[in-house]
């Protein structure tokens, strides 16, 4: 205990608080690596939150709930893909519209689910590991989604760096005309990357409504999708830095909740604002110091592709 | 000929409003270097895209190794043994050499094995290349090696090369030709597209000449002169440029110790660039693109500010003036990138004429556009420079590259500049149009204007410039009179042999 804050609880809470943003940012990273800027993360998250919640409540299974959230996110992302990749609409405007659409649609679907408690998501019992002092409660006392999110980051990193499909995704995001000339199917690759990004955003949303809160309330993502977007940019499109960014955001979120609970005389609004401000600040500083050397954004990011060009 | 590797008959492809290929037929034997010749828009690119499976023909048949060949996509073409090196490099700058190569292969081996193979092949064919380097850091010649090695790793039976030498120094061209001759001797057929007739005469065994989408002649290029080939391409007499009758006047333009930080991530910096220019003089600046050409143009045109005293016109320091102020003083520029830099793609030719023309021509009145005057100015450009377009109302995007280039050059020339800077004035422009652009630059100089021509085309620079210097990694060599300059010396200047600079001083 330091100043009324329990460090072990704090770090344990950090991992859970980070998970929604981590999932969404990892998904968006893949989409942006393929050269598509989907600003609709917030919309996909909130739709995933309500769809996951509804599925879990109706079926009684949180696992099905997360799958439902992922499917809902992927469907909304597919709508975005259809509009931007096939109908060639503007990515920025479509992404913003997607967020507004997701917020509205989730409020409509969620009306009947307010004030209900979802079935609990099981924590994984790791036996002796969970019983370890300090490390046990910090690392080995979480639900399966936390571990899944970490595995997904590692898999995404290895996939992008070492696999053939990952190389093709990076190539498409780097120079879609060249990728097309070499015979790769730019639109199919981008469609798949977007759907993957949507699924992860949906899962992240479902984690909010099924585990973090756990309840359905309108607009409950509260900007987490935007933070996920910012994290991808400031992480210079690198999965390992996305992990740092997401955990930083989660850490400050957990800390400010504990500070509130410990009764510090800091205005609540300042505290709730802190995670957003500090995350962005730290990431700006990080990316500024890393500017030299490594190329940052995928060169074709946000540009529409049409085969005749 | 029996045992043709590739046999094409009656190939036709029409786009809305234009027949790109009309009943094209020819054949290529194994080990043959076959040239495809033609002006811009003659249908060469469409033809090779059909062979490579990027475009589907409307009619006609292709046979490859005696079997019917209809590649639905490049993958199938590659599987059959057809490889292609593109005119605009199809490379990924942020990726490494080995990754770029892997992307062009059907079943690439693991990265480590691939790196070893790249190393082997590149040494075997005299094209040294480090598989671990990022493509963005490579020179144009090295980038082309990446493309060629990507093709060679698949043991192609037919290698298509679309304008491969346009970005190479003479030495690099020699290396490339050595590689191609070696490949041909090993039985690989090569389909070679180029505008450079002398190259075709020295390299190719046979040639098919296209005009307006049709085959107009087949010949053996060694037995014809470059002039005859050019006339076959154009379908008429070919006017040589006339550079006689020019007198150099007083010094009017000076660049002194100009430095500029890189404008893009992989771009070069300008380092201590100095030269002077007299009225009536044409200064040719050679060098492979990406060595500071764009940077130099943007500091001369006024887009990028430079330190005080570095650029002066008539003795007046203009280093801190923007493009419009410089236009007012008589310094005009035509950048390389036609769509998006020299012209706005979605605006009409009239509107594009206003964009740079209004400073020296009365095209606006009290802040309002004078569309009548602007339209007349655009029409003047169109008729004076033989721009082929339905009229000045057409969007710049709709013009072919060569026609838009003529428009862009004409727009600046007709404003009667005192100093004109052009970057790659005939890049991607066919022989006849290129000749007329060069002539217009010479005519401008003979009226007393100073002209700076930045170009990769050495023949062009030798043809029109009075003095020549080379831009290499942002450094400009000391200008030397073009008369009596040998290709050898030019190659050394381009390669950045700094001893040459010292010797010239």
Automatic annotation (TrEMBL), chain A:
Pfam name, any one: BPD_transp_2
Key word Iron present: no
Species of provenance: Rhodobacter aestuarii
Main location: membrane
InterPro entries registered for this protein in UniProt: ABC_transp_permease (IPR001851)
Subcellular location field: Cell membrane
Keyword annotations from UniProtKB, A to Z: Cell membrane, Membrane, Transmembrane, Transmembrane helix
Transmembrane parts of this sequence: 6-24, 36-57, 63-83, 95-113, 144-160, 191-210, 216-235, 242-259, 265-286
Protein name (record): Nucleoside ABC transporter membrane protein
A GO cellular component entry from the record: plasma membrane
A molecular function (GO) term: transmembrane transporter activity
Statement: the UniProt record of this protein carries the keyword Transmembrane helix: yes
Membrane topology: Multi-pass membrane protein
TrEMBL record, chain B:
ABC transporter domain: residues covered: 6-237, 255-498
SMART domains in alphabetical order: AAA
Keyword field contains Lipoprotein: no
GO molecular function, one term: ATP binding
SUPFAM superfamilies: P-loop containing nucleoside triphosphate hydrolases
Compartment annotation: Cell membrane
Entry's Gene Ontology cellular component terms: plasma membrane
PROSITE patterns, A to Z: ABC_TRANSPORTER_1, ABC_TRANSPORTER_2
Matching Pfam families: ABC_tran
Keywords annotated in UniProt: ATP-binding, Cell membrane, Membrane, Nucleotide-binding, Repeat, Sugar transport, Translocase, Transport
InterPro entries on file: AAA+_ATPase, ABC_carbohydrate_import_ATPase, ABC_transporter-like_ATP-bd, ABC_transporter-like_CS, P-loop_NTPase
Mode of membrane association: Peripheral membrane protein
Name the record gives this protein: Nucleoside ABC transporter ATP-binding protein
């Amino acid at each position: 205990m330091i100043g009324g804050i329990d460090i072990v609880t704090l770090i344990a809470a950090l991992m859970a608080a980070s998970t929604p943003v981590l999932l969404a940012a990892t998904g968006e990273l893949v989409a942006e690596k393929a050269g598509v800027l989907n600003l609709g993360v917030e919309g996909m998250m909130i739709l995933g939150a309500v769809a996951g919640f509804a599925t879990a409540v109706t079926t009684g299974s949180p696992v099905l709930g997360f799958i439902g959230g992922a499917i809902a996110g992927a469907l909304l992302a597919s709508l975005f893909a259809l509009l931007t990749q096939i109908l060639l609409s503007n990515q920025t405007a479509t992404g913003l519209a997607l967020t507004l659409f997701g917020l509205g649609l989730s409020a409509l679907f969620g009306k009947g689910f307010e004030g209900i408690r979802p079935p609990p998501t099981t924590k994984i019992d790791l036996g002796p590991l969970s019983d370890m002092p300090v490390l046990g409660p910090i690392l080995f006392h979480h639900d399966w989604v936390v571990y899944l999110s970490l595995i997904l980051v590692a898999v995404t990193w290895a996939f992008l760096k070492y696999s053939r499909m990952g190389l093709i995704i990076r190539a498409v995001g780097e120079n879609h005309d060249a990728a097309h000339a070499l015979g790769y199917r730019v639109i199919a690759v981008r469609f798949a990357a977007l759907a993957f990004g949507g699924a992860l955003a949906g899962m992240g949303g479902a984690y909010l409504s099924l585990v973090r809160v756990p309840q359905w309330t309108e607009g409950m993502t509260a900007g987490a999708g935007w933070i996920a977007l910012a994290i991808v940019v400031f992480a210079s499109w690198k999965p390992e830095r996305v992990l740092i960014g997401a955990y930083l955001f989660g850490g400050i979120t957990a800390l400010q909740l504990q500070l509130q609970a410990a009764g510090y005389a800091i205005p609540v609004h300042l505290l709730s604002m802190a995670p957003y401000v500090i995350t962005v600040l730290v990431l700006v500083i990080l990316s500024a110091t890393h500017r030299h050397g490594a190329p940052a954004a995928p060169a074709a990011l946000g540009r529409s592709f049409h085969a005749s060009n | 000929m029996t045992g043709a590797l590739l046999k094409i008959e009656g190939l036709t492809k029409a786009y809305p409003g234009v027949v790109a290929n009309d009943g094209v037929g020819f054949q290529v034997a194994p080990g043959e270097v076959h040239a495809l010749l033609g002006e811009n828009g003659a249908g060469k690119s469409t033809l090779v895209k059909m062979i490579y499976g990027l475009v589907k023909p409307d009619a006609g048949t292709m046979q490859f190794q005696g079997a019917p060949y209809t590649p639905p996509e490049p993958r199938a073409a590659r599987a059959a043994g057809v490889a292609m090196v593109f005119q605009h490099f199809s490379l990924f700058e942020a990726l490494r050499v080995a990754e770029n190569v892997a992307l062009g292969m059907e079943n690439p081996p693991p990265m480590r094995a691939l790196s070893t193979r790249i190393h082997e092949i590149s040494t075997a064919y005299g094209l040294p290349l480090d598989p671990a380097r990022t493509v963005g850091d490579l020179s144009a010649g090295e980038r082309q090696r990446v493309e060629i090695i990507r093709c060679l790793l698949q043991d192609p039976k037919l290698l298509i090369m679309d304008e491969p030498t346009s970005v190479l120094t003479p030495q690099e061209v020699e290396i490339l030709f050595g590689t191609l001759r070696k490949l041909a001797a090993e039985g690989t057929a090569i389909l070679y597209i180029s505008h450079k007739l002398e190259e075709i005469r020295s390299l190719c065994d046979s040639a098919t000449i296209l005009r307006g989408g049709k085959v107009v002649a087949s010949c053996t290029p060694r037995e014809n002169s470059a002039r005859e080939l050019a006339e076959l391409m154009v379908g008429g007499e070919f006017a040589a440029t006339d550079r006689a009758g020019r007198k150099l006047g007083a010094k009017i333009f000076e660049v002194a110790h100009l430095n500029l930080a890189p404008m893009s991530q992989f771009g070069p910096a300008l380092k201590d660039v100095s030269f002077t220019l007299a009225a009536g003089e044409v200064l040719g600046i050679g060098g492979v693109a990406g060595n500071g050409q764009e940077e130099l143009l943007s500091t001369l045109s006024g887009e990028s500010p430079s330190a005080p005293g570095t650029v002066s016109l008539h003795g007046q320091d203009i280093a801190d003036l923007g493009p419009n102020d410089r236009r007012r003083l008589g310094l005009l520029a035509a950048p390389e990138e036609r769509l998006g830099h020299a012209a706005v793609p979605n605006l009409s030719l009239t509107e594009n004429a206003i964009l740079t023309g209004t400073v020296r021509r009365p095209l606006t009145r009290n802040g309002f556009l004078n569309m009548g005057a602007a339209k007349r100015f655009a029409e003047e450009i169109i008729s004076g420079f033989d721009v082929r377009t339905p009229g000045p109302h057409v969007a710049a995007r709709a013009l072919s590259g060569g026609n838009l280039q003529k428009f862009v050059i004409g727009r600046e020339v007709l404003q009667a500049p005192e100093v004109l800077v052009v970057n790659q004035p005939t890049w991607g422009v066919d022989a006849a149009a290129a000749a007329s652009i060069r002539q217009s630059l010479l005519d401008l100089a003979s009226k007393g204007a100073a002209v700076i021509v930045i170009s990769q085309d050495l023949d062009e620079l030798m043809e029109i410039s009075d003095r020549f210097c080379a831009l290499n990694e942002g450094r400009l060599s000391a200008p030397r009179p073009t008369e009596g300059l040998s290709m050898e010396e030019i190659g050394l200047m381009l390669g950045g042999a700094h001893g040459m600079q010292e010797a010239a001083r």
